[in-house]
């Protein structure tokens, strides 16, 4: 396990923002068919800023650490800023990941993008609902 940085191990042992958000503004559910890991990301958005983010991950240590880090990274960011958070940024914030574990950070990026897409879809719906 020395292949993992201190920070990865720390987020794996003590993950931040575990759980579910009630009435979330966006949900992203993704899975990797090869390893079978599953990640769910929930976001709360107010005035275009992510005020809260939580996750539930059934997966490897790196999947848990990247989920934890991505929730930390996006809190306080605008939706547009969060869109730009890449899997590399997540991995870098964790002090790097072993090459065979980079796909775990990809899962975190995908979950985030899906949650943001979901948020945007819901917002459009709400707006068109109002206009009607
Ligand atoms: Fe697949 Fe980590 S081994 S997400």
Description:
This protein is α+β, with helices and mostly antiparallel strands and 132 residues long. Helices cover 48% and strands 19% of the residues. It has helices spanning 6-13, 61-74, 79-83, 87-93, 102-131; strands spanning 26-31, 38-46, 49-58. Strands 1-2-3 form a 3-stranded antiparallel sheet. α2 (61-74) packs across α5 and α4 packs across α5. The longest helix has 30 residues, at 102-131. The mean pLDDT is 95. The chain binds FE2/S2 (inorganic) cluster. Residues 32, 35, 37, 59-60, 62-63, 103-104, 107 line the site of FE2/S2 (inorganic) cluster.
Indicate the topology.
Layout: H1 6-13, E1 26-31, E2 38-46, E3 49-58, H2 61-74, H3 79-83, H4 87-93, H5 102-131
Helix pairs in contact: 1-2, 2-5, 4-5
The structure holds FE2/S2 (inorganic) cluster (FES).
FE2/S2 (inorganic) cluster binds at residues 32, 35, 37, 59-60, 62-63, 103-104, 107.
In terms of quaternary structure, the protein is: single chain
* Ends apart, CA distance between termini: 57 Å
Structural class: alpha+beta
Strand order of the largest sheet: 1-2-3
Rg over C-alpha atoms, rounded to the nearest angstrom? 15 Å
CATH architecture: Alpha-Beta Complex
How many strand segments?
Answer: 3
Summed over residues and divided by their number, the pLDDT gives a mean of: 95
Regions with little confidence, pLDDT below 50 for 5+ residues? none
> Which ligands occur here?
FE2/S2 (inorganic) cluster
Q: Which CATH class applies here?
A: Alpha Beta
What percent of residues adopt helix (DSSP H or I)? Answer: 40-55%
């Amino acid at each position: 396990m020395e292949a993992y940085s201190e920070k990865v191990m720390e987020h794996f042992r003590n993950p931040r923002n575990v759980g579910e958000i009630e009435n979330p503004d966006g949900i992203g559910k993704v899975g990797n068919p090869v390893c079978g890991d599953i990640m769910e990301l929930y976001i709360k958005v107010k005035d275009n800023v992510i005020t809260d983010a939580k996750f539930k991950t059934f997966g490897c240590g790196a999947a848990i650490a990247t989920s934890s880090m991505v929730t930390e990274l996006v809190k306080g960011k605008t939706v547009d800023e969060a869109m730009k958070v890449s899997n590399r940024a997540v991995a870098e914030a964790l002090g790097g990941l072993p090459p065979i574990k980079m796909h775990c950070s990809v899962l975190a990026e995908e979950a985030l993008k899906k949650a943001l897409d979901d948020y945007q879809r819901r917002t459009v719906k709400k707006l068109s609902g109002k206009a009607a």
